[in-house]
Amino acid sequence: MFSVHKAVFPVAGIDTRFLPATKSSPKEMLPIIDKPLIQYAVEEAIAAGITELIFVTGRGKRVIEDHFDKSYEVEHVLMARGMQNLVEIVQDVMPRHAKCVYVRQAEPLGLGHAVLCAQKLIGDEPFAVVLADDLLEGQPPVLEQMIHLFSHYDCSVLAVEEFESSEAPDHGVIDGRHWDERVISVSGIVEKPAPENAPSNYGIAGRYVLMPGIFEHLRPVRPDAQGQIHLTPAIDSMLKDEQVLGYEFVGTRYDCGTKLGYLKATVDFALHHKEVRDPFGAWLHSRVGDVRG
Predict the structure, then answer these.
(1) For residue 1, is it within any domain?
(2) What pTM does this model have?
(3) Domain containing 277: what range?
(4) CA dist., res. 189 & res. 212, Å (int)
């Protein structure tokens, strides 16, 4: 019986879709209301029982390390002003029962390369991979759902969702058959195929629970035409040796790597935020009326 205690957060990539906002600040630090995307991802991992958070960082990503570090100056100012509630909010950013570890990816060479950078820290344990720009909202949290499934089957699990056929070029697309409710036995996986070449309408949704055998299959993967080493060819190769499952998670995915997905997340989270939901909901209702008019 295996257990999952480590999660890899690949945060070294360069984002072009949100320029100039991401020129000096990572996309993972883009806020949804009052928390950055990376904090939502970390909170999801902590809720799933992860105790070691491995951030694969790169140039210009120091702000992520600072975010999860203690801020004496901010806490001192807030305490001097009698804002104890805000002190607690700042302190709660830092995971209390988990440790943060940082490893450098010298060049942003793709998701597969980022995972490979974490190999020495992972060792021979199963681990999770969490992409912060895929904001997944579920109860229980999606990674917790996946680890529960992993503990039952003792094999790698990929979070998947159904998509429109025209969206195939935006996904790693799986092939396979349904084993059980929401569980797909994966027989193949293709990175961003043309719609006519997609083996199914199920794509990976930014969450992975992987057996350590993935590293043997990652090392031989060659870069694509853009110099990127993808994770999907390694998973496809791993299928020769071991079982991989796709899991149709219970929840909602917001693709915050796109402007539209980011805006959808912002609106939905605002409508459930206790501080702003009522005035924002009223304002939004009036604006929808203006648009319809």
Answers:
(1) no
(2) 0.91
(3) 258-293
(4) 18
